[in-house]
Amino acid sequence: MDDHLNEGHIAPYPHAAAGWGALKHVALNLWRERVKATDFRMLLEQNQHGGFDCPGCAWPDREHASTFEFCENGVKAVAAEATSKRATPALFARYTVTQLLQQSDYELEQHGRLTTPLAYHAETDRYQPVSWDAAFQLIAGHLNSLDNPDRAAFYASGRASNEAAFLYQLFVRAYGTNNFPDCSNMCHEPTSRGLPQTVGVGKGTVTLDDFEHADTVLIFGQNPATNHPRMLGELRDCAKRGAVIVSINPLRERGLERFTSPQHASEMLTGASTRISSMFIQPRLSGDFALIKALAKRTLELDDWAAAAGRPRILDVAFIAEHTTGFDAFTADLRAEPWELLIAESGVARDRIEALAQVFVKGANIIATWGMGLTQHRNSVQAVTMLSNLMMMRGQIGRRGAGLCPVRGHSNVQGNRTVGIEEKPGGAFLDRLGQVFQFTPPRHHGHDVVATIEAMLAGDVKVFVGLGGNFAVAAPDTPRTFEALRRCDLTVHMATKLNRSHLVHGHDALILPVLGRTEIDLQDGVAQGVTVEDSMSMVHLSYGGNQPASPDLLSETAIVARMAEATLGKFPVDWRWYAADYSRIRDAIAQVFDAFYDYNERVAKPGGFHLGVASRDRRWNTASGRAQFIVNPLDLDTPLHRARALHGDKLMTLMTTRSHDQYNTTIYGMDDRYRGVFGTRRVVFANAADIAMLGFQDGDWVDLETAWEDGVPRRADRFRLVPYDIPRGCLAAYYPETNPLVPLDSVALGAGTPTSKSIPVLLRASA
Ligand SMILES: Nc1nc2c(c(=O)[nH]1)N[C@H]1C(S)=C(S)[C@@H](COP(=O)(O)OP(=O)(O)OC[C@H]3O[C@@H](n4cnc5c(=O)[nH]c(N)nc54)[C@H](O)[C@@H]3O)O[C@H]1N2
Ligand SMILES: Nc1nc2c(c(=O)[nH]1)N[C@H]1C(S)=C(S)[C@@H](COP(=O)(O)OP(=O)(O)OC[C@H]3O[C@@H](n4cnc5c(=O)[nH]c(N)nc54)[C@H](O)[C@@H]3O)O[C@H]1N2
Ligand SMILES: [Mo]
What we know:
Blueprint lengths: L8 E2 L6 E2 H14 L4 H9 L26 H11 L3 E2 L1 H6 L2 H4 L4 H6 L2 E2 L3 E4 L4 E4 L2 H14 L6 E5 L5 H14 L13 H10 L9 H4 L4 E5 L3 H4 L1 H12 L3 E5 L9 E3 L4 H6 L3 E2 L3 E3 L6 H21 L8 H7 E2 L1 H10 L2 H8 L3 H13 L3 E5 L1 H4 L4 H14 L9 E4 L6 H6 L8 H11 L11 H9 L5 E5 L3 H4 L3 H9 L3 E6 L4 H4 L4 E6 L8 E2 L2 E2 L2 E4 L4 E5 L13 H13 L6 H5 L2 H11 L6 H6 L4 E2 L16 E2 L10 H9 L4 E6 L4 E2 L2 E2 L9 E2 L4 E4 L1 H6 L7 E6 L8 E9 L6 E5 L24 E7 L2
Helix pairs in contact: 1-3, 7-27, 8-27, 8-29, 9-20, 14-17, 14-18, 14-20, 23-25
The structure holds ligand MGD (2 copies) and molybdenum atom (MO).
Molybdenum atom binds next to loops.
């Protein structure tokens, strides 16, 4: 479906988030995906003990409770996997790859589940069935003929289980490289690189229990009504208890205003709803670092005043003395930072900063959550460390009801990193891995996503293997990413459904169809469970219950094991022995990582176990052994600043974000209900005053062009202008249509994350 010319319609959504609207859309999706009645049952088992872990988001569940945790977008994710549609060899016989490339991302996934391994044939320009053995031989042949293991890269999207991911990293390291580009690199990498500098661990410090004791929740750059709907249930309870909830977001997200809980029959029947956010602070795009620094400065000023007046201190002086280092340098920097700059860079007026500071200093138990709005900018590592600094000032880390809460994306993206999907592995981990498995892992760091694309473009990486995901479409600078993949000798994708990455292929190419998490995974006749770690470090078991989409599917774990065996034989382990019983892999994980002691036993208990996060217990795994205040200056000479200086008011900053009807690159439908967009994705939200200033009108069609300094043209055409409550100078449009606008070399400093939420662009009227 090409919706280039589809106008759709725009109408503000008058209802609360969730409620009946969500129920209606659940029914619609089950119908659209033609999910079989017998498979409905699966939904009832979602996120329950003995059931499967929702492949939607990484938000945790309440002790895998027995009540059905209803979540519209969880249902969509499950329906997409449990669909009765099939992409059989007949589809690939009918269409050449060139023809399939003409179809939209939506149409490609709508063909349904892949059923059999496929290999690309250049003579016919078609994918044709291939035996599993022949597929593994092809991979092994390519890998073993490379002159250097670093010429291969091994992508992971965060849906794979701990078992598959652990075996994958063992295989890749035994093969000889640390080239692990992963979806984290495009997602929460600034969290994973920033937090270790301040609190010693790149993970959140809270659990769901803390939400029951928080009186203040600050939500930075997140749209939970769409991306983590179950979080709204938690926020509802906080709000009902009287907690103050603040949304810090350039967009005033309707989904954070009111919520009708589908879990509560009375709310559904009476149409009652709960107000969620009581305050909206709207920084300009990329302004959070300055805003958080301003909050820290104001907190310090208010504490000076309290100290002078003999009032109770605002800073947690005991925590700072006992647990931290660097405080004096930090406060000296804050005092020296001029207010005018903080206001100008954040885009938030002084009185709004004051209002937010009042909330922050009055909170006794504060949780700060954040998502992509904080992590996809040049200064994201600095923003994350500044937020950590701010919370440390008031001792809001490592005590009940308070703490840091990065909200991850893919359901096991955190677990993948925990078990070793990491292009910059630590020495201690490599030592241990080498000891346990009796081999010498490579020590030099590998490529992340952006470095992998650059290396493929340079001809330095020739083989690309993807454990899930849609690399070609999720990555930045689309034409360059496509070219990079096309320069490969071999591209391999393990996937549930057809997507564009399979069609933008190397000289040789394979599509390997995998079992989904909702499906029964039999190994040696025994049903296997897999384990995943949610955003709050809870590890639990997941058992699929549906029949596999096709008898010819293999589990990801089995594919990794057989790929490893074909490539390395029995070095350094008997791969098939591990894949035959996943509890053996869990035992191996426990041998490598102390935190997983008694893994099989502990994960068998309902709800699983908490992995332990040192900073939560106020143990600081930093160089100094203390939580560290980090000084970061405002950077006033960035590509964005320079573009603004060059183009003046006409320069806009664009964020690329998710609609309500998509899961990353998987498009479920054309609506973005809470933002009032129906039947189209080709919209760009802008401030009404900017629309007028640029000489446009509401509803005009515009083309977007990146204002970058390398002279490479980057365009995305035909978006309908929609006036929206967003600060001047800021725009919002959907990902992935706008990925061609993100320059490959525009990344978060210190994390390499593409700056998907702050792209300098110019607008032109569409032809
Ligand atoms: N249904 C569904 N669920 C999902 C996903 C999905 O696509 N669909 N994706 C999954 C994944 S992988 C992830 S990472 C998460 C993503 O979940 P989110 O983190 O919610 O991601 P986005 O929708 O990209 O945008 C987040 C918010 O950031 C705001 N924002 C943009 N720029 C800025 C800024 O400069 N400052 C501030 N303060 N805010 C800003 C946007 O207005 C938007 O509200 O969700 C996961 N869950
Ligand atoms: N411009 C812009 N770009 C972005 C972002 C943004 O906000 N703006 N967000 C970034 C973020 S946060 C992320 S996480 C990445 C996401 O990047 P990816 O993780 O690479 O992308 P997805 O769209 O989640 O991958 C979808 C595909 O995964 C496959 N799949 C689904 N389930 C399974 C499974 O169980 N096993 C296997 N093997 N395959 C499966 C299906 O074939 C499906 O087509 O995109 C990033 N790109
Ligand atoms: Mo993500």
